[in-house]
Amino acid sequence: MHGLDNIVGLIAVVVATSVVARRIGVLSPILLVVVGIVVSFVPGLLEIELEPEVVLTGILPPILYVAALETSVPAFKFNLRPILLLAIGLVLFTTAAVGFTLHALLPAVPLAACLALGAVVAPPDAVAATAVARRIGLPRRVVTVLEGESLINDASALVTLRVAVAAAVGEAVDGWSIASEASIAVVGGVAFGVAGGLLIGFVHKRIRNPLIDNAVSLLTPWLVFLPAEAVHASGVVAVVVCGLSLGHRMPTLMSAASRLQMDAFWRMVKFLLEGVVFLLVGLQLRSLIANVERSFAFTMGALAAVVGVVIVARIVWLFPTTYFTRLVPRIRRRDPSPPLAAPAVISWAGMRGAVTLAAALSLPVHLADGESYPRGLFVILAFGVIVATLVLQGATLPTVARWLKVPPDDEKEDALAEASVQHEASRAGKERLEEMAGDAPEGVVERLRQVAQSRSNLAWERLGRADRETPSAAYARLRREMLNAEREVFRTARDTGRIPEETLRQAQRDMDLEESLLERGDL
């Protein structure tokens, strides 16, 4: 029961903290880490020791999977070069920078062990960064690059960590073994991801029950992650590739009911998992402090050095790779140089998360020949990087974006594109209606024509003045009031025994579906 108490306690704290964060305008991951740190010093309250496998195997796959499902494959492909430069190039650069810096501070510790910590703190967690980016209206491309980086950088960091740890514990490591390890991880991960996407897509296409569809969707991240890891391929890459494949084909794989239910389900899962992860990070502080082998002054000095290198390395890497690559004419023609504000805001969005702490906790207890090293110091340094980057960069990212005057996407341009495509879609729908109408009652056909026309009109209305209520907005407002009155009639009929509970629930579901369309403005 103690485990169940902890789970309920974690969820309750996540929900309460998230509500407070929204009320006071603070990013919830930051507040969750701070609350976790405070709670960690309260004896007997949520004393949970984080196991690396819980994060790397239990929590990371579904978080990556839902992120991949929501990622635009065309946008991902268009931005593949900057994404790979960040997710692979920057990870290796940060690993080396942190590793050599730490080795200079701790010359008695083997370089391989220091590089292992560099790999641990190298991958940013874009959960907080993308949350801020969406909230403050950063350009869509900036969000895409940050999301794409977060989908891949965990894989490159974990492979780098595996190689560094192997060298630190005395295993033979050379150029061939490193290339072989990386190739197996990447190629194997892609193969498992593609195979999983095809197989699970085949299954989804033949399922008619939304509940079964969602159960399969819930299992999917582990169905590709675990087999890939079993043969030493990258489970992270497998999950990302599978999620991108399924997300891109989702309109043709599932029924509308399944998609609606899956969207609501994964939003809740994502909210809870991400919240629990950041809360767990904060809860580890008390136990981590107890295992630090060095003095407080040395620990703080080392932490300042590592945090500084982590932040500066991202800035130093991002600007040259953004502009020097465009010296190549083919790249420059396809993708002109962005304004300085774009790489500047991306360079400041380098917050670390739970993967960093889980990777740190997975560091070996002893090195080659049983040699000891300050493992406790390494873990507390990883924790310090998480907290420092979350609080320093996460809290100031909105201010930095405003100071840089990062131009948001043109809403008018988006609305115009949507209206144009909606007009074509409505015309195609009307043509299909005329083909299939046959002997259908004229009243039904006319009503369907009006639905198609109203959707086309709605898209064009979004281009109008924002301070004037459009016909569609007036319709939605009035229809919402009508639905409230209808609900009250059904509720009263249930209470007086005129209809059973099942009838009320069915009517309530139909009205809720209609109201959800009103929220979007599709009726």
UniProtKB/TrEMBL annotation:
Keywords: Antiport, Cell membrane, Ion transport, Membrane, Sodium, Sodium transport, Transmembrane, Transmembrane helix, Transport. It comes from the Bacteria. It is a multi-pass membrane protein. The chain crosses the membrane at residues 6-22, 29-48, 54-76, 83-102, 108-132, 184-204, 224-247, 268-289, 295-319, 340-361, 373-392. InterPro entries: Cation/H_exchanger_CPA1 (IPR018422), Cation/H_exchanger_CPA1_bac (IPR004705), Cation/H_exchanger_TM (IPR006153). The keyword Membrane applies. It is found in: Cell membrane. The keyword Ion transport applies. Residues 10-403 form the Cation/H+ exchanger transmembrane domain. Na(+)/H(+) antiporter that extrudes sodium in exchange for external protons. Belongs to the monovalent cation:proton antiporter 1 (CPA1) transporter (TC 2.A.36) family. This is Na+/H+ antiporter. It comes from Dactylosporangium salmoneum.
